Amino acid sequence: MDSQHRHELEENTLASWLADKIEVLKPQLPAILLGLVVLVAAIIGVNSWSASNAAAKADRWTDFAVALEQGNPDLVDLKTAADNNPGTPVAEWADATWADGKLYRASQIFFSNRSEADKAIEEAIAVYERLVKSSHRDIAERATYQLGRALELQGKLDEAIKQYGRVTGAFALVAKDRILQLESEPVKESYEWITAAKATGSTTVGGTGGVLDNLDPDNIPLPDMTSEEAESTLDAMLQDVDSEEDIATEETIESEGAVESEEAAEAEASADAEAPAADEAPATEAPTDKPADE
After folding, report:
1. Domain segments of the chain as ranges
2. Residue 235: enclosing H or E segment and its boundaries?
3. 171 Cβ contact partners less than 8 Å away, ≥ 6 residues apart
4. Which of 127, 164, 199, 293 is the most exposed place for a label (fewest CB within 10 A)?
5. Largest CA distance in the chain
């Protein structure tokens, strides 16, 4: 009985405490309920924002991916992706790729349309100079290196060397190697010729653009030559080559004819030597006499 009575007393005490608390909280109950509603709404809002933010990020990267679907990046789509997503990594990657495309285009038309090439280089440089300040390390390093390539294409080798010296990260070794090449006299002389060459035709470049590694001699005149003079010089060189080939062919034919004549003469002499021997052969044989009739 004592334990049961004790249990009943404890239950009564708990009930009394709850009743007192409820009475105390009744005036504050609307505020408490409002707080619970706000908390639930906040949780739902955060989840919705996270989902929408993830979807927005996916959409932004989709814009960038669409611009890269073709073999050559679509510069218009890249520009649109950058403009539609300002202040985001997508915008910076789109800008960097757009500038790379401009630099590559400039290298393609460097000799055929110098003014447009210079304009494209300047546009690329403006973007690179902005991106070197990016908080994203990969973007900043890439822009730093590509800025050196742009300066190099402009023929500003000293500035390009200084720019390559600022490169860090994944491009550091490539930049260091490029510095060594630009400091060599043959490369300096080549760039002096390239920047002085007059427009005659399109050229191609190796790598991501900005360095004229492969130049087609059929489309590039020698320094201080007009296009007509260059073509005339090339035609004369080709004629000389054809003449030398014709002379070599004639000499070969004459040589082969002389050999054939010598072989014919030797064959004739051999035949003449064998003829008398054939004629004398019957005379050397003893005639066969018939036995005399007895």
Report:
1. 63-216, 225-261
2. helix 227-284
3. 141, 142, 144, 145
4. 293
5. 187
